Each structure stands twice: as C-alpha cells, then as structure tokens.
Amino acid sequence: MTGPVRDDAQAAAFIRANTRVGATPLIPEIRLHLSDAVTPLWQATEDWLERNGLDPPYWAFAWAGGQALARYLLDHPERAAGRRVVDVAGGCGIAGLAAAMAGAAPVLVVDLDPMAAAAVRLNAAVNGLPVRADVGDATALPVPAADLILAGDVFYERPMSDALLPWLRRQAAAGALVLVGDPGRAYAPQSGIESLAAYEVPVARDLEDRPVRTTQVLRILGDAGNVGTDN
Ligand SMILES: C[S@@+](CC[C@H](N)C(=O)[O-])C[C@H]1O[C@@H](n2cnc3c(N)ncnc32)[C@H](O)[C@@H]1O
C-alpha cells in the first residue's frame, strides 16, 4: 500500500490488511486487530507508516498496561459500570473496550495517532461495543474529563510522563477515579499512588525484553503539591 492515509476508510483498510483479529491470553473476552509473530508485518507496517509520516504502530498491540487495566475492570465491573469513561493514550483501545464491556457509558478513547482511532473503531465493531474514538492530545481534555480516567502504559518516555502525570493528578483532584496500568516503566510515579492489583501479563517478545511483565493497576491520587514524575 502506498500514499498517505487520506481518510478513516483507508486507515481501516491498512489495519485490516496488516493485522489479525485475535485476543491476548489474559483478556480472552476482547477481540482486537493485532500484529503478532505470526503476522511478521511489524517491520513492513513500520516502514509504510514511516514513509507516510505516521507514528509507529502502537495501536497494533495490546500493551501490558492496557491489558492489566482491562483484566482489572472485567474482574471488578463495579469500578466501571454506570461511569463516564475516558481511556487516554488508548492505542488499540483495550482498556476502554473492557470498561464498556463492564457497563460503563459513554466510553471515549483518545489518542494522538489517527491510526489508533481507526483501530479502536474497528475493535469496537468486532466486539459490538459502543466506544467512541477521537484523535487528540489527552492533556487538552477538560478537567474533569469523566468519572473514570484510564491510562495504559504511558510512562515509558520522560516527556510523555511529564505531560500526562500532572494532568492525571488534576483529574483525580477534581474527583475522577484515575487508574493506570504500569509494567514498571522508567518514568512511572513512585508516590501519590495506590496499588490496587498486579497481574503477570504475557507480552510480545518483539516488543519487550522478557516474556511476562508484572503489571500493576495503580490509582493515581490527586495531590496538587505532588505533580511531577516523582523520580
Ligand atoms: C504504549 S501505547 C499504549 C496504548 C494502550 N493504552 C495500551 O496499553 O495498549 C501509548 C499510546 O499513547 C499515545 N499517546 C502518547 N502521548 C499522548 C497524548 N498526549 N495524548 C493522547 N495519546 C498519546 C500514543 O500514540 C500511543 O498510542
């Protein structure tokens, strides 16, 4: 496929052609358009996206943080049911999809990458879940953006953590329940958090340096005096 992604239909065609619909071992309930070792297209996909000036295909994987959040919400549906949810930096949308499956409404997934929004729309359709996907910078969303804010695997780069963590704390200070899934990334907060659960998440060897990542579901506390990366 060549040429820029002109519209959502072209993005959807690219995603369908370069992924398989399947589920991760930890979240068999949710089917996603995923790239995996059987579909050796990560490199091809990355090359095509690079030629077209697009981001790496984060949306083609369910990252450990998103998987842990999804497992937590499916096992504790009362945390999501009846709540308005925003899944920020949602990638493939696994956490938002789990929230919708648990009874949340409405559910919005926001990601900077237009390809992620296209993937979330496809994934919502595959599962028959009413999840909306928007393209945008999560930190531009209002405070509070929803009753429940989800963020899976967002602390792997310092600039991203420095932008998102203060915003997440403001959401919590304004009364939202803010849950993040974190597999021990370098820029995750070390304080102003409450650990709610931990999961052993099998992960793709193409992406990670080990086959399983211990991944915590953390509640971000709203502490106006403690808004940095904390490490
Ligand atoms: C490692 S992926 C995690 C995706 C998903 N949450 C999961 O756990 O599978 C990080 C995602 O964050 C998105 N992202 C980074 N900064 C963002 C921002 N300021 N606003 C919205 N999305 C952002 C990227 O485009 C990417 O899709």
Provide structural commentary.
With 231 residues, this protein is α/β, with parallel strands linked by helices. Helix content is 31%, strand content 25%. It has 6 helices and 9 strands, in the order H-E-E-H-H-E-H-E-H-E-E-H-E-E-E. Strands 5-4-3-6-7-9-8 form a 7-stranded mixed beta sheet, with helices on both faces. The chain has a two-stranded antiparallel sheet with strand order 1-2. Helix 6 (158-173) links the parallel strand 6 and strand 7. Helix 1 (8-18) crosses helix 5 (114-127) and helix 3 runs parallel beside helix 4 (94-101). It starts with 7 loop residues before the first helix and ends in an 11-residue tail after the last strand. Bound molecules: S-adenosylmethionine (SAM). S-adenosylmethionine binds at residues 55, 58-59, 62-63, 65-66, 88-92, 94, 110-113, 116, 137-139, 152-154, 160, 163.
Blueprint (SSEs and pairs):
Elements: H1 8-18, E1 20-24, E2 27-34, H2 42-51, H3 64-75, E3 85-88, H4 94-101, E4 107-111, H5 114-127, E5 131-135, E6 148-152, H6 158-173, E7 177-182, E8 193-202, E9 212-220
Helix pairs in contact: 1-5, 3-4
Concise overview:
The chain is α/β, with parallel strands linked by helices.
Q: Unreliable stretches, pLDDT < 50, 5 or more residues? A: 224-231
> What's the rounded overall pLDDT mean?
89
Number of strands: 9
How many strands, which pairing sense, and closed or not: the largest β-sheet? 7 strands, mixed
